[in-house]
Amino acid sequence: MERATRMLARAKHVVVLTGAGISAESGIRTFRDTMRGLWKDFDPATLATPEAFARDPEVVTRWYDHRRLGCLAAEPNAGHTALVAIERGLIRRGGRFTLLTQNVDRLHHRAGSANVHELHGTIVVWRCTATGNELEPPPSPFREFPPRSAWGGLLRPAVVWFGEMLPIPALDAAARALRTCDCFMSVGTSSAVYPAAGFVDLAAASGSGTIEVNPQETPASGRFDVSIRARAGAALPELAARAFGTGT
Ligand code: OAD
Hints:
six-stranded parallel β-sheet; alpha/beta
C-alpha cells in the first residue's frame, strides 16, 4: 500500500483499467455468474455473439434486458467513488486521469468519473440494426422481444459481442493514454481477455509504474510492480485518502 501510495502521489498521468470485480460490490454479477435461475441452462458464449442474435434475437434480447435492468438498479460503490476522488485530486494539481473500463454497466459515469472510455460498449444504450442509430431506453422492461426500433430495424444492446471489434475511439484513447501514463492501475479484472490484458505491458514499456488491485492472483499478477490483494471497495478509498488526502 505504501509503494502504491507513493506512485499515485507523484504521478502526473494515472490510467486505471477496471473489470467486473469493481462492480461486484454493487451487486452486479460477473458474466458467468448471471447464468442462474431462468438462465442456468444457457452458455454465455452462445448468447453474447452476433450469430446468437441472428439465430434467436428474442432470447438474446430478453437476457440483455434482464442484465440492463440489473445494472440500472445497482448503485456505484466506494471503489467507483474513490476513482472519482483520484481523478479530481489529479486535476486539482494539474495532472491527468484516464479511466478505461471493460464494464458495460455505466457505474463509473454515474459515480461522477469524467474521462471514461468503455472498451466493451454499454448495455444502457441500444442500437438500431437497420440504421446504426442509438438510444437510451427507459428503465423499464421492453414490451416486446426482440424490441423493434422506430427506424425499422431490431434493437440490440450497444455492447461488444465475442467476435466483434472493440470501438476504435476507445482503443485509440487507451493507446494514447498508455504511452504517456506514469502510473497504471488495474482493478478487478482477471486479465484474461486481450487487448486489455496486455495494457500492463504497454504501460510498463512506457516507463510507467504498475499496480494491480484484486483479492485473487491473476495470470498477469507477476507483471505488476505492486499487487494489492484486497477488494476495490476497501483498497481504493484508502489509496485515494493517502495519496490525495480526500473524499470527492
Ligand atoms: P472477470 O469476471 O473475468 O474477472 C473479475 C475479477 O475481479 C476476478 O479476477 C476477481 O478476482 C476480481 N474481483 C472479484 N471481486 C472483486 C472486488 N471486490 N474487488 C476487486 N476485484 C475483485 O471480469 P473481467 O476481467 O472484467 O467480455 O472480464 C473481462 C471481460 O471478459 C468481460 O468484459 C467480458 C468477459 O468475457 C465481454 O463481454 C466481451
